[in-house]
# Entry
Amino acid sequence: MPATTTVPVTVRYFAAAKAALGAAEERVDAADVVDLAALIARAPASARPVLERCSFLVDGVTTTDLTTPLRPGILVDVLPPFAGG
# Structure
């Protein structure tokens, strides 16, 4: 039987999200993160409050809808709220 190849979801973390996760980028199995809510749920408990306040770019499209589906090969950018003036 041939081996099954999975295509991951690439997740890039910025600013406070990067600090909370301790990583700038990760690749996760698309079967484990069917939507943004699942992406947050798999994070360590200490990082979830930060991620829950973030906006997301899903293949370049901005969203805060945690039911946004994630398909294999997609790129997700996790962007915490930014202050500025």
